[in-house]
Amino acid sequence: MNIVRITFFTLLILVSTSCRPKEKSTQPEMAHQEPIENPETPKLTPSELQQYETAYFASGCFWCVEAIFESVKGVKEVYSGYSGGTEKNPTYEQVSYGKTHHAESVEVYYDPKVVSFTQLVQVFFGSHDPTTLNQQGPDRGAQYRSIAFYKNDEQKKIITDYMAKLEAEHVYGRPIVTEVKKFDKFYRAEDYHQDYEKLHPNNSYIQNVSIPRLNRFKKNFKSFLKEDVH
C-alpha cells in the first residue's frame, strides 16, 4: 500500500473544546451529555471476543481513536481505556488530569484473516499526528501522547520498520515522537466512555474534533473501511 501523505495534521486548528473536563465538578455532566439510543449491535461477549486478536494504541482522546478503529473492516470491537503507566485501576479523572503515567488508549479486537497488524499500524499512523510530543489537537499532556504498543518482537519490528519508512519518505516533515512500548496492562475506561462518539454526536468536542478527525481518516483510507461506513 502507498503511504498517504497526511500533511493536514500539521495544520490542525486548535479549538477551545477538549477531551478533558475543565473542572472536576463538570465531569459527570460532560460525560453523559444528551446520549442517544445506540444504533449499533451490542458489545460482543467475553467468550465471543476470545476468538479474535488484540492490539493496543494511544493517539490522543480515546473517543476519537475508538471511532476510527471501529470504522476499519476486520475490527470486531474497540474499547476505550488506559495503558502505558504503572498505576493500577486508574480512573478517568486521574488520567485526564495527568495524575498517572497512563495514556488514553484503545483495545482493538480484530480478525487477522481480514485485517493484519501491519494494517492496524498504518491506521494508527494515518489517523493522528505522531510528531507532536504529549499533544494531539487541542488535548495537551502526556496522557494524550502517541504510543504504539507491541506484544512480541514481530509486532515491534512491524512498528519500527513502518516508522522508518515514514521517516525516510518525509511523510510528516518533522521527526516522529511516537513511543514504541511493550504492552503490559490495559484498563477499560468507565462505561460512559464506550462508544462515546456514537452516543453523543452533539457534544461540542465530538462536533469540532472527533468527527472531523474521523472524516479525514475515512477520506484517505477508503479501502480500509467497513461496507456500512460512509
Automatic annotation (TrEMBL):
Pfam families: PMSR
GO molecular function: peptide-methionine (S)-S-oxide reductase activity
Residues annotated as the enzyme's active site: C61
Highest rank taxon of the organism: Bacteria
Composition bias type Basic and acidic residues, residue spans: 23-35
Segments for region (Disordered): 23-43
Keyword vocabulary terms for this entry: Oxidoreductase
EC main group: oxidoreductase
InterPro entries per record: Met_Sox_Rdtase_MsrA_dom (IPR002569), Met_Sox_Rdtase_MsrA_sf (IPR036509)
EC numbers: 1.8.4.11
Domain annotation Peptide methionine sulphoxide reductase MsrA: ranges: 54-205
Substrates-to-products reaction catalysed: [thioredoxin]-disulfide + L-methionine + H2O = L-methionine (S)-S-oxide + [thioredoxin]-dithiol; L-methionyl-[protein] + [thioredoxin]-disulfide + H2O = L-methionyl-(S)-S-oxide-[protein] + [thioredoxin]-dithiol
Task of the protein: Has an important function as a repair enzyme for proteins that have been inactivated by oxidation. Catalyzes the reversible oxidation-reduction of methionine sulfoxide in proteins to methionine.
HAMAP family on file: MsrA (MF_01401)
Family from the record: Belongs to the MsrA Met sulfoxide reductase family.
Protein's UniProt name: Peptide methionine sulfoxide reductase MsrA
Lineage: Bacteria, Pseudomonadati, Bacteroidota, Flavobacteriia, Flavobacteriales
